[in-house]
Amino acid sequence: MLKGWLRVLHKNLFINLYLGFKFAFSYFSILPMKFSNSDDLSSKGVLASMLLFFPLVGAVLGSLSIGLFLVLEGLSWYGAVASALFYMMLYGFLHTEAVIDVADAIYASHSGKDAYQVIKDPTIGAMGMLWAMGFVLLKVSGIVFLFMHSAFYEFISVLIVSRLTLLALFYSQTFKSSFVTQLKEAFTRIYLLVSFMLFTILGLVLIELHFIALLLMGLILAFGIVKFLNAKLDFINGDVLGTVLESVEIALMLMVALLWI
Q1: pLDDT tens, 69-89?
Q2: Dist. CA 85–CA 101, nearest whole Å
Q3: Which of 219, 242, 237 is nearest to 119 (CA)?
Q4: Pick from 261, 17, 5, 41: nearest CA to 158
Q5: What pLDDT shows up at residue 38?
Q6: Share of the chain above pLDDT 90, in %
Q7: Residue 35 neighbours by CB distance under 10 Å
Q8: Are 169 and 180 in contact (CB under 8 A)?
Q9: In which band, very low, low, confident or very high, does the pLDDT at 138 lie, cut at 50, 70 and 90?
Q10: Cα–Cα distance measured from residue 66 to residue 255, given in angstroms and rounded to the nearest whole number
Q11: So where are the chain's domains?
């Protein structure tokens, strides 16, 4: 009976990990993933596994972008720009859209409007678009610089770190969003520790002890930015997390350029 129970437990764990793996790429990228009608993507095990694999999504999207750059390397900076935009296209500009919503909400709150209602509004304002354009220019410029200096491992490490910092926020913050709260409730400490352990090992393989420094800087930035945005908006939701990810990636790319290249 005990062996049967353990067999069922292992089978359920494998199914949760498998579905969570696919769900992570389905939700955080535009890579095609197929699910059957019987797949329960709302279960805590699947949601926790989805977040566990979140840093892997960044590593894979980054690797695909590097692969494109190596094909287009003869085009010099033009190939680098195309590859940088390709990276952002691979996640469907999901986090860039979050920047638009957060910027609009902050500026609306200055005039006494309800920031949460503004952030849920499907329309966008001029300030949100301008801030998003600024973020895209900084992001593309940072990726182009890293590609032109062949800092491929550093690039992938930045993408892993930015997503690890969001996992720390998922685990530690309180959210004004039913779906994000559902993710938080599913994402237990063991999943957080396993994800940090696995991807820290990968980061150490890529850039050795520099990864630890990058991770510490990323965590400091993420918690500082989310605290600032929470003070401005009086809530944290998925758009705030997306804005934190974009901000951390841009800042870390600048730090890599200044300190290691």
Answers
A1: 999 999 999 999 999 999 999
A2: 21
A3: 237
A4: 261
A5: 82
A6: 74
A7: 12
A8: no
A9: very high
A10: 20
A11: 1-20+43-52, 54-93+133-259
Residue with tokens 């199914």: 15
Spatial contact of 136 and 256, defined as CB atoms under 8 Å apart: no
Amino acid occupying residue 250:
I
Amino acid at position 205, single letter: V
Instruction: State CA 23 to chain mean position distance.
Output: 14
Strand, coil or helix: 53: coil
Position 261 confidence tier, pLDDT thresholds 50, 70, 90: low
141 C-beta neighbours (distance < 10 Å), count: 17
Whether residue 252 contacts residue 221, with contact meaning beta carbons closer than 8 Å, is answered with: yes
Burial of residue 83, with CB atoms counted within 10 A of its CB: 0-12 exposed, 13-18 middle, 19 or more buried: buried
CB 150 within 8 A of CB 229: no
Tens digits of residue pLDDT in 195-237 = 999 999 999 999 999 999 999 999 999 999 999 999 999 999 9
Rounded Cα–Cα distance for residues 258 and 248 (Å): 15
Claim: this prediction has a pTM higher than 0.85: yes
